[in-house]
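Person: At home tonight, work slowly through the protein below, taking as long as you need, and write a paragraph about the fold.
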Amino acid sequence: MQLISQFRHAIVHDKGFLDKTVLKDKLPQQRVINEKKYKDFIDCYYDENEYGNLICLSTVIDDVTIRGLGINYNRRLILTEHILSYAYLLTQLSIQYLEKDKDIPKRQIFH
């Protein structure tokens, strides 16, 4: 969630520019299980050209090909999927809390 928050802040206030090293220092690394995957995930949203600190949400075709087919990464879709999965998780946790602690049936929560 903090990655999404940092991206939003950089896009809105800094025209999409955010230094990767600063970003990695801001995010809680003590919770990271696999540091290489963590860094690779962050690097996925950056380009390697002259705009190295610009957050990129466009689709990229990877140079690695499988059977002659390039691999497309739709970074905006990946980020949106993460946001939606957090929203779903928070919704489910809220429903569980309301049903358990408040004795409110599920059908009454959404009415």
